[in-house]
Amino acid sequence: MIDYDKLAKYSAPVPRYTSYPTAPEFQESWTADNLRTAITRSNESGRDLSIYAHLPFCRSACYFCGCNAIYTNREELKDRYIDYLAREIEIACKTLDRERKVTQIHFGGGTPTFFNAAQLEKIIGLIRSAFPNIAKEVEFSVEIDPRFFTEEQMDVFAENKVNRVSIGVQDFNPKVQKAVHRIQPFSIAQNAVARARAYGTKSVNIDLIYGLPHQNAVGFKETLKMTLDLAPDRVALFSYAHVPWLKKTMRKLDETALPSAVEKLKMMRLAIETFSEAGLEMIGMDHFAKPSDELNIALKEGKLRRNFQGYATRGQCDLVGFGVTSISEGEDFYSQNFRDLGDYEKAIDSALPPILRGIGLNDDDRLRKRVIFSLMGSFALDFAAIEKEFDVNFESYFASDIAALAPLEADGLVSIANRRVEVSKTGRLLIRNIAMNFDKYLKKTGSLERRFSKSV
Ligand code: SF4
Fold first, then answer.
1. Which pLDDT does position 446 carry in this prediction?
2. How far is the CA of 420 from the centre of ligand 1 (A)?
3. From 358's CA, which of 5, 146, 388, 410 has a CA 20 to 30 Å away?
4. Mean pLDDT of the chain
């Protein structure tokens, strides 16, 4: 039995740890020169590349959305954006070794499928011609809005070996859909899944969100059941992050209809039980996958890594982001592009990488990143494994961090024994709260309000 009231006390603003240090620590003093030096160093490592293209346009706002999206009907904006993407790639390739092997490509947004088939083909062509060494077994994934997803687009994806699609659903309940301004009957998702399957797409993911207005455990049960009717290979179940001070459209949501922390925990628990009964195992803090899925295999082989797209199976890659707001990541840096389209275009017009901010990682950052991502990825922390990679004695380096876990151990969220931290099944619901104990920057910055969303 879970004491939800006891767990609800952990509901506090906490980072989602898609990076460490987290994005608020990125500095605008990070320049094109810093990036060039970091990329040159990463070229020497010869690590594989993971390419991300951010395609930011949407027809209208879904009020829960935290993405960097531009709402428009203007077709010409998309063609213009593709031209700028081409120029950004050209600028990047002056430093980036184009011969490095590409093992992952991901299109996110915005709504990638808001670009028409010809435009998508053009974007894929840009990447293929800039990076000739694309692995045969490349993992190519695209986020799909099922309301904008045609046969022609799927044709382009199939021809270009897109093997993973992620279909945005969030919730099937009409009342919830109306409240969040995203009306999308079940049949639309069903057709999108059928279309992807008909072309032999290897993996279909469904995105859900819990914590939206009018959601509760009773209604969410039906959404979970309908999701399973689609027979997904993976499900991503995100906790709604209510940050109206950062995202204006979230102010349109009825805050009085948002579920309580206890109700959110119940929905999460229900999802874990429902999916595990259906053979989808929990991977990391918000993903579920079939045992045969690469995510699951990567978890078992200790290769699962956290990144800006959630979890990656090929975590040893350097991430190269193109487009507004996208983030690049190497072993010792993060670099983020401008969020504003005008600023992005202006930099490219000046033949500069369109960088807004970034950070170089010191030794402590790299060590803590490894520790936090180990917890987020495998729900465990093996002191000896960390010591093998870093020249530290774990217990003395992290003495205060381990001591800070004591109350969480008393609440049954973790156990610490035999030089390991193990996260319990209940602790998985609060993995961000556990990981934050190893975050050095949080200790310095004090108040977390208005910087991060609540963990529950
Ligand atoms: S959820 Fe997707 S379609 Fe909706 S606003 Fe966000 S990016 Fe656009």
1. 58
2. 40
3. 388
4. 92
